[in-house]
């Protein structure tokens, strides 16, 4: 089945059409292991590409600053209802443009500039917006950072409690971008209660696992939950904030008019579509399959002598420390990409190397699971991975073309949602 690909774009602007088509082929041919990426469904793509992009809707349903909201109001309400039902939340705001603005809205809801925030340090797996130095959140607020334990690679909950009681933050973040282990939401909630802080759970990476029952939910433990919609949740690029009735008005006001103008209605529609997909029983199977693939890949890498931060994974994500392999993250990531395995270099906890040239690699299984890859294939993926990393360590560039061709052959058997090669 071939989708009729971009006829208007091809006629009018072959330069852009050519790049979009080349990107589709690239996504089709590679083993995509970037932990924050996925493949959305054709229905999500259609909603994203719809005429809703033509419409301005500043405000909220029934309280807009522009006329003509006969369709946008019920659409946004539908997205909100689906988000509330899927996650069991009292209130949802689906307007944040992306994960970072959603997190900024949490600050705008609960903090004044200069207030203290406690978050996981970026090189330990936290996100920029959890108060890292170079982020506005680290400059405008008094950011204090907790870490993971050196011996276990897991979040140091004793340190979280110690810092919370000493620094008395107004806001505590849990969650991160490179955490391979389950987040203990009840433990964070207990600490937040003890020090009188608001607890924000950032589930950007794991939202799909939470929705599918493959990771515990923060709802009922955290005062506010933020998430992107485009990672494991497999929706369009966007974000949501879930909260209680108590904080609903303040969160809504922080998003608009506090930080944003008009919501991206085409994204809202696509979020609604993705939320309905995530509510289906087969999405729970998908969430479980993501974790099964990650565990199988982690096991296969351990067998080949790779050092995994925390020793493995509970979710979709694996963080590898390459130090014992004698190659840094950046050259390894480059070599792997040339060989058809796409991922990103990443700092590992207590990394002795610089952030722009760190010791690790981060990978995730959400996208390959969408393609239909199964755990029995993970030893093969680890074999290719190992072959390329070992070659990169020796400065040997001769394996890339052969491995890339083998991977192209494999991936050709696994359909890509929304695109297929012609002929
Ligand atoms: C991806 C991510 C974000 C930010 O999302 P963007 O859409 O890239 O702004 C925020 N927090 C966490 C934990 C993330 O993984």
From TrEMBL:
Residues given in the record as (6S)-5,6,7,8-tetrahydrofolate binding sites: 122, 126-128
Catalyzed reactions: (6R)-5,10-methylene-5,6,7,8-tetrahydrofolate + glycine + H2O = (6S)-5,6,7,8-tetrahydrofolate + L-serine
Feature type site, description Plays an important role in substrate specificity: 230
Compartment(s) of residence: Cytoplasm
Pfam hit, one: SHMT
Known pathway: One-carbon metabolism; tetrahydrofolate interconversion; Amino-acid biosynthesis; glycine biosynthesis; glycine from L-serine: step 1/1
GO biological process, one term: glycine biosynthetic process from serine
Assembly description: Homodimer.
Role: Catalyzes the reversible interconversion of serine and glycine with tetrahydrofolate (THF) serving as the one-carbon carrier. This reaction serves as the major source of one-carbon groups required for the biosynthesis of purines, thymidylate, methionine, and other important biomolecules. Also exhibits THF-independent aldolase activity toward beta-hydroxyamino acids, producing glycine and aldehydes, via a retro-aldol mechanism. Thus, is able to catalyze the cleavage of L-allo-threonine.
Xref: PANTHER family: SERINE HYDROXYMETHYLTRANSFERASE
Protein name per the record: Serine hydroxymethyltransferase
Gene name as annotated: glyA
